[in-house]
Amino acid sequence: MIGVVATLKVQPDKASEFEAVFLDMAAKVKGNEPGCLLYQLTKSKTEAGIYKVLELYASMDDLASSFQTCKLFVDLWMILCKACTNIDRKITKGHFHFFQY
User: Fold this and answer.
1) With the C-alpha atoms ordered 68, 71, 72, 78, is the resulting torsion angle positive or negative?
2) Which range marks the domain in which residue 20 is found?
3) Is the Cβ–Cβ distance between 83 and 11 less than 8 Å?
4) CATH code, domain with 74
5) pLDDT tens for residues 47-85?
6) Is the pTM of this model over 0.90?
7) Under 8 Å CB-to-CB from 98, ≥6 apart: which residues?
8) How many domains does the chain divide into?
9) Per DSSP, what are the bridge partners of residue 43?
10) How far from each other are the two terminal CA atoms of the chain, in whole angstroms?
């Protein structure tokens, strides 16, 4: 299995919109990516506006195909990005933390 963790900082006044759009996108990911075993949004209890997206894929091939599928959700991604004040630089450069089990 392959795990991905993305960290996002969301503008306080955009948090509700961000969460609603993410839930819509998560449903589409789960419905279109059979190799995606987990696609979960978490919200920090100690840092305002900090969210982490936890993803778990059955294989590296499933993760690779998710980059193709995400093109289907580009409109939702644009809304999410506009709500963020910062996306972890490792994400914007295409670098992820991969954990293989």
Assistant:
1) positive
2) 2-100
3) yes
4) 3.30.70.100
5) 989 898 888 888 888 888 887 776 667 777 777 777 777
6) no
7) 2, 3, 4, 63
8) 1
9) 51
10) 5
